[in-house]
Amino acid sequence: MSSDNEVLLDKGKQNEPKVKVERKEGEPTSAFKGASWAALLVGVTAYLIGLYNATMELNEKGYYFAVLVFGLYSAVSLQKAVRDKDEGIPVTNIYYGISWFALIVSILLMTIGLYNAGSMVLSEKGFYGMAFVLSLFAAITIQKNIRDTQRARERD
């Protein structure tokens, strides 16, 4: 008897119109926003779990953590500066240059650190490198999504 009631309830739900939330023009889809946040969460979490489980000295762990934070900040800063410049928002050349410099330095610090890490096997170096790149890419994408969403909502 209970299965008959469930069938009736399911039929009632099928006839109800589904509410579709409309996106503003230029706003990223929810799926893209979610994928970006998931990529950042996966990249940073994997990187930090790898650091926590690593057999390296605490000062080495601190180095790799600082490089991650520096890289994330510099990537978002550069994305903002590039986007501002593209949209005609004034950006000083010194800020634009420092943003590029900071991102390049963070990538170089990661590369040099992994190259000189004699205690790490090659697969571990690859793991840290890929988690770092995934995190940087995701941070840039999230910054872009936030800005696109804000801009789309300001139009209305």
Detail the topology: elements first, then pairings:
Layout: H1 2-15, H2 30-53, H3 58-86, H4 93-115, H5 122-155
Helix pairs in contact: 2-3, 2-5, 3-4, 3-5, 4-5
Detailed description of the structure:
With 156 residues, the chain is mainly α. The protein contains 5 helices and no strands. The longest helix is centred in the last third of the chain and has 34 residues.
**Runs with pLDDT <50, length 5+?**
none
Structural class: mainly alpha
What is the chain-wise order of helices and strands?
HHHHH
Mean pLDDT: 88
Number of helices: 5
Question: How can the largest sheet be summarized?
Answer: none
Radius of gyration: 22 Å
Total number of β-strand segments? 0
Q: Helical percent range?
A: over 70%
Task: Using the alpha-carbon principal axes, give the shape.
Answer: flat
Query: What's the N-to-C terminus distance?
Result: 52 Å
- Proportion of residues in extended strands: under 5%
Summary?
The protein has 156 residues and is mainly alpha-helical. 79% of the residues lie in helices and 0% in strands.
Feature tags:
mainly alpha, 156 residues
